[in-house]
Amino acid sequence: MPSLKSIKKRISSVKNTQKITKAMKMVAAAKLRRAQHAAFQARPYTKAVFELAERLSQQDQVVKHPLTLTQEKISKRDYLIFTSDRGLCGGFNSNLLRRLGDELSQCREKGIKVYSRIVGKRGRDYFKAKNWETMEAATGLYENLDRSISEELGKIASNRFEAGKTDEVWLVYNYFRSTMVQEVTFKKLLPFSGELKETKLIDTIYEPTSLEVLDSILRESLVCQIHQSFLESMASELAARMAAMDNATNNASDMISYLTLQYNRARQATITKDLMDIVNGAEALR
To answer: With contact defined as beta carbons under 8 Å apart, do 76 and 113 qualify?
Structure first.
């Protein structure tokens, strides 16, 4: 049985750890409110721009745009992957990277060449450990997230697609469903495609030209979808960290209760042993 001193030291260590996990949970909860608000506020605009681009691209009088052209056979594919810079967020990264690993394995089996652009240290480290090739790995973007970052990534993606360097561009991120549910999402960014729900197409007058209007809307939709992926990923990370730290705090409480019980039993055994020694000594002196 461990000594009283070692058990007491371990209880103290667990209590200190519990203070840290509780503080991290509170910080994540405070940040989550802002991140959740930002993600929810951006969704209607992102959806509206996407639907507008979808409606315009299917008008008969609109010339086909390069960003809407599909290839008969897919041989090259880009992935823009959103992971976190920090750990201690449960299955946030592991679930996404596991699904991504399966997806990349299927691409190799089909002979599709994959180019990966990663956001976040965890994704970068995972790819490095697996010896998977990456085009670029960016870290620290969540700390000062700005729309200009999404515009730059959108420009890179569209330039590669229009130059024929890739046949498809996909977004991989965690969609924020609720504080307890975050869904790993694979979303095709390019070529732009959508299923128009409206059966009636409205004749529209375009100024200056239909192609210029469509080009502006498509590129705006591209940037909005990338920026929305950033916001969803940030909110999902904080929700996952809050849940993970809450579980860690509860587990620490359970461990403290168990160690306290063990300490009391050891202390009682020591007292009983000392009493037996005193009684035996008294009997020996008679």
So the answer is: yes
pTM for the model stands at 0.87
pLDDT(79) > 90 = yes
Rounded Cα gap, residues 174 and 83, in angstroms:
8
SS3 content of the chain, % helix, strand, coil (to 5): 60, 10, 25
Cα 186 from Cα 170, distance rounded (Å): 7
CA distance 176 to 232: 5
95 with 224, same domain: the answer is yes
Which positions are catalytic? 89
Sheet holding 182-190: strands in order across?
A: 136-138, 113-119, 76-82, 168-176, 182-190
- pLDDT of 199 reads 47
The CA-atom distances, in angstroms, between 172 and each of 52, 86, 93, 178, 184 are 23, 18, 11, 18, 7
Q: Are 160 and 222 in contact (CB under 8 A)?
A: no
What is the CATH number for 86?
Answer: 3.40.1380.10
Range of the domain at 15: 4-22+244-281
Three state DSSP letters for 69-92: CCCCCCCEEEEEEECCCCCCCCCH
DSSP-H helix ranges across 85-167: 92-110, 121-130, 147-162
